[in-house]
């Protein structure tokens, strides 16, 4: 049996608990791994609350991204062998001692990238990469990132800057130093945010990457003339109402390998700011659910 952390019903944190499940065998297109680290993301608690539907078989193990060591390679999978150090999108929950990865959304971990940082790449950093590409701006243009201080926002700022974009980002005053360390212009969120954005970008912004949604997105959208350049990872309904769209995900083995290579040479920092043992999974998830995490949190499993 392998220890795992998940939820037994849809709802709040009270539905979460530790689970024992059999060691999983790799099926077609899968890798079975011993988990070494798993990323903690907002999507984890949103799934638990049923915001993406309630069709999952319960109990369900949480966690969408993980890194570890290959135990078994499933039928039809090439490019991996037992003993390889890998990272990828979890097919059976990442908050566990052992799990399955989707081989087509997994890649070999560079030797000089630790498991903690690798575990942030399949969902958090890859979402940032997809979203910046999806907005579609060119060098010299201005991108506004709503909710820049978290894991996705921190990665998106670095990726955008590497492509020659000027970056503005909304965050609390407590996160000003972190935002500026990313090479971005800090914009305090809250009442009057549109005026503060206009002061920093008098001609308006050329694109918006929304990581928060709701009223914060609606307040900032007035600074963007071309609403086709509005992409959200958080609120597809509001984005569509405003003329924008939800992010298009395009994660592949090749795109993950490219992101890992950037981390390996020091050109991209996932900004892991908190590391928790699997036994403290509930604590890490509660911090992410609060919406006030700076950088990225990971669970260290082994």
Automatic annotation (TrEMBL):
The keyword NADP applies. It comes from Streptomyces kaniharaensis. It comes from the Bacteria. InterPro entries: ADH-like_N, ER, GroES-like_sf, NAD(P)-bd_dom_sf, Zinc-ADH_QOR/CCCR. GO terms for molecular function: oxidoreductase activity. Keywords: NADP. The lineage of its organism: Bacteria, Bacillati, Actinomycetota, Actinomycetes, Kitasatosporales. This is NADP-dependent oxidoreductase. Pfam families: ADH_N, ADH_zinc_N_2. Residues 11-299 form the Enoyl reductase (ER) domain.
